[in-house]
Amino acid sequence: MTAEPDGPEDRLRRFATIWSRAVFPVTSTSLTRPEVEEQLLPLARRLSDALLARSYQAAEGKAVGAALVAAHCTDPEALSRSLECVDAYLVLYCGGDGNREALRTRSARLQHGIAAGFAQALRDRTLAEQEAISHAALNARSVVAEALHASEARFRAVFEGAAIGIGIADLEGNILQVNGALLRMFGGSEQSLRGRRVSDWTHPDDAPQVWRLYEELVRGEREHYHVEKAFYRPDGTALWTNLTVSLLRDADGRPQYQLALMEDTTERRLLNLRLRYEATHDALTGLPNRTLFFERLEKALSAGEGQRFGLCYLDLDGFKTINDSLGHAAGDRLLVEVADRLQSCATAPGEMVARLGGDEFVALTTGPDTEHEVDELVGRIMNALVTPVSIDGRELTVRGSIGVVEGPAGERGPAEVLRSADITMYRAKSAGGNRFELADPEADLRAITRHGLTTALPAALDRNEFFIEYQPLVHLGDGSVRGAEALVRWLHPQHGVLGPDRFIPLAEHTGLIVPLGRWVLDQSVRQARQWQERHAGAGPLRINVNLSPCQLTHPGLVSDTVDILERAGLEPDALCLEVTESALIGADDDLLKPLRRLAEMGVDIALDDFGTGYSNLANLRRLPVSVLKLDRSFTQGMQQFPADPVDLKIVEGIVALAHSLDLAVTVEGVETGAQAEQLRILGCDTAQGWYYARPGPPERLHELALVDATG
């Protein structure tokens, strides 16, 4: 029999065991190692729960850090070992089947929280200790007259035995006494420290208010102050401290001495700097990440008057193909090489390069003359990508599309600027890639509008914001109305009435064209049935409905059409489905099969926009079409007299070909009487256009048909 796999509790216990073995040697406690493990087990469980939680809870990491201090794991080495243990084993033993990349990111944030909680708890503990020492010092000096020797002994015990550095100076800044902890912090002798003055301990990183607070204290205007301050050690290295300075008064309340309490925070600061670096830099390339880039961009955009910015948004062309064909390891090496090249392009003051994620990079330049600088920057980037990258013996050509945004600071926010750069980059990619484009506010607005329309489409159908207008189809022989083409419109709440050219491509892209097309077909068939009932004696009126390529491939096309016709009570021969020529170029039998079934039922199939798809005319014989709709580009030359003889010959030839194949010919875009007469002479069957009527409500077609029927 095989052993059953460890459960979550077993893996959690294993993680706690490893953790206790790491920190036990540096923990000041009388507990045994197994007892320390029992203390760490609930902390491990909190980390595991926080790792797998739906959303990140910053307080959990801080609570674990504080609990370490409470468990006497106060040595900085205990924190360092704990962070290393969490980094190496938390995801391994507690991550379950989750996304490893996301879990490691969550683990890194938990480590930051642990460090922050540890630092805060240690600081609170130190401040409490400092307060006790301060009180002890004050008490010792206040009872000097009563018990000088006993008081001095107690003060000396506290002074020398404290774990934090203590120094006493007079009001002129002369250092009088220092304890052993302070000597160990600075690494010098007592004589070397006692011979210095407080004013000698300035540091370039001192906050502006540090010495102002000091002057107020020695003048007796404040009792104490607390700051973070750096010092130079004798060997030139930096010592960072939490510094508390208190004023000691004599029995009459006059200022007499100053007491300084110092906690060494150098290692904690270095740890925070390391965690800050990891949180703001990309792990793969070492470049600043999205977080740091947004900080820099926000700072650049909030600069004073006269300052400008330039932003280059780069996306590699064809990077997915490299990942799919050569593997993600090769893709990562390519990204590292690209990052190195981009970094070499942004070396001037005010320039930076960052990786936003995936194969997307940004370069930022700031200053008063970025109009010129951003041109040079984008040129350097394009040149840097020219040389192929060698990976595993392969020479990979690197291409990129870049969107460039430049302008004055203070007018736009970071999100708006980055959105404009992103839109511009995609314009460059749509234009063929391996190029850059400059941001265009009008193009941005169109793209934003397209996005807004795309997101509003699904709800628009539910809210009945679509309606249909009908354009009459007129017989060229006798001028009678034979039917109409259904043209869908969108009554948008903000943009008003939108034509199909504004939203049909978006509907096709999102897949909404299938339910929208079904709705148009249903409404149009119902309308055709109403027309037949209202003027039965005037002959049947047919309805033409457009089909998109997406609808052609939808498996429910035939069944939906049959169901709609049967529910409306309309015969199939009263319906004509229009399919663009481009949708049928190279169509195989699977695509043509549903059209053939509909044609066999009696539904007419019209080949729309004929002449624009450069198809082989011989293919007409195998297509299940009964009508050719001639594109308006062939008949525009007939609007004036005399007509273009070349257009006449082309149309005459197409009509002859269509009639020889038993196909009717419909002409679009008829706008003049001369044009209509010429098309009639050439033998075209039906026509539509503004010469007869613009698209309108269904009542308009009823009126036209009624006029035609009466006379």
Structure commentary:
Helix 2 runs antiparallel to helix 3. The model is unreliable at about 1-5 (pLDDT under 50). Helix content is about 50%, strand content about 20%. The strands form four sheets. The protein has an eight-stranded mixed barrel, surrounded by four helices. It has 25 helices and 21 strands. The protein has about 700 residues and is an alpha/beta fold. The chain is elongated, with a radius of gyration of 40 Å.
How do the strands of the widest beta sheet line up side by side?
A: 13-14-16-17-18-19-20-21
What is the percentage of strand-forming residues? 15-25%
Number of strands: 21
Oligomeric form of this entry? Answer: single chain
Please summarize the sheet with the most strands: 8 strands, mixed, barrel
Q: How many distinct helices?
A: 25
What is the terminal separation in angstroms? 96 Å
The global form is: elongated
Q: Any low-confidence stretches, pLDDT <50, length ≥5? A: 1-5
How confident overall, as mean pLDDT? 85
- Computed CA radius of gyration, to the nearest angstrom: 40 Å
Structural class: alpha/beta
Helix content: 40-55%
